[in-house]
Amino acid sequence: MMKKLFSTLQQWVWCICFFLLGSAVHYGQALNQDEVTAVKMWLDEDGETSLYMKVSAACNNYDSKRAFDYIGLPSTITLKLNSDVGETSFVYEHPRYESSMLMFYSEAVWFKTYNWKHAVFIPLFYCSQKHGATMPLSYIILFNQKMHIVHLSFQCKPEVWGSCVPVFKKRNIKNQLAQLPEALQVDFIQYVEKTYTTREDLYPNHMTFKQKKYNDWNLESVVSIVEASYPHELLRRLHTFIEDQKWQLAEAYKKEFEYLYVEADYVHIAGFRTSKRTYEEEIQRLINSGSSTEEKLLEQANHHAEAGDFQRAYQWYKAILEEFKLQ
């Protein structure tokens, strides 16, 4: 099944390039906003399915460069569902909580199968300096080629790990989801009540989703193409695509890394060790000497990445990409 699933790589390659490059170039330079992108793939009754997700004006906790600079600017999530039955696009904008922007994490998306079809549950969190005792949460639910929106709210105690309880009526949620299978309605309400129990669950970061209560809902049949924007993850993918000579994907991930972490050729990553100098001359001398093969250069770049020296690793990968993609 997995071989068949990944046989569709060429079909979505251009799409993921578009999303990643769009994030790094167009929005990074023209609109100066943060974007988050992710891709999920699976097999169900509709055949080989790919879901492309993109959130503009995002404010992910720890990821965003300017978490509160654009409060009041409506975030937009764009979804494209591509399967054997056709292609469907959805756009959700103008969030109910207008003073907030959207947080989106691909790790938080969960799936269940009903009537041999996957239902996709996409939580949207809100970034705001005005959250008090009441914390908002929205959900996009995709099922049978249709989109459904649910808005929820929770009453929370003030501390970071303060406990939260839902303040919505189950009957109202079921009415909003009346067009969906009853089993789906029940699963959704149970998941919400079980999962969103603290303030951190409603104002999360990547580490939030390492908790067991999230992992219990992961499906092995769903493949995550982009799980996070951690620097070592982006560099690992850059390494793989250079090694496989997939230059367009390699270039896309390099640009994504640069957009998130590079300013004036220096890498700035909070919480990670980075050098305060550049290594362009050192790397170029080694390349020009002809004493190192592409394989050895990649091995050295990977060594720097694993050691947490992201300044060196980034410049090595950048030089290798520029040197070998033209050959």
Structural topology:
Blueprint: H1 2-6, H2 9-31, E1 35-44, E2 47-56, E3 76-83, E4 86-93, E5 101-103, E6 110-114, E7 117-127, E8 134-143, E9 146-156, E10 164-166, H3 170-176, H4 182-195, H5 199-202, H6 212-215, E11 223-224, H7 231-243, H8 247-261, E12 262-263, E13 266-267, H9 280-289, H10 294-306, H11 310-324
Antiparallel strand pairs: 1-2, 1-11, 2-3, 3-4, 5-7, 6-7, 7-8, 8-9, 9-10, 12-13
Helix pairs in contact: 2-8, 7-8, 7-10, 7-11, 8-11, 9-11, 10-11
Attribute tags:
globular, 327 residues, 2 domains
3D architecture notes:
The chain is of the alpha+beta class. The protein has two domains: 2-224, no CATH class; 231-324, no CATH class. 38% of the residues lie in helices and 26% in strands. It has eleven helices and 13 strands. It has helices at residues 2-6, 9-31, 170-176, 182-195, 199-202, 212-215, 231-243, 247-261, 280-289, 294-306, 310-324, and strands at residues 35-44, 47-56, 76-83, 86-93, 101-103, 110-114, 117-127, 134-143, 146-156, 164-166, 223-224, 262-263, 266-267. Strands 5, 6, 7, 8, 9 and 10 form a six-stranded antiparallel sheet that branches. A hairpin with a 2-residue loop joins strand 6 (110-114) and strand 7 (117-127). The radius of gyration is 21 Å and the shape is globular. It starts with a helix and ends with a helix. Residues 1-33 and 224-228 have low confidence and may be disordered.
SS field, number of helical segments? 11
The general outline is globular
Strand percentage lies at: 25-35%
Q: Could you give the order of the helices and strands? A: HHEEEEEEEEEEHHHHEHHEEHHH
Q: Poorly predicted ranges (pLDDT <50, ≥5 residues)?
A: 1-33, 224-228
Number of structurally distinct domains = 2
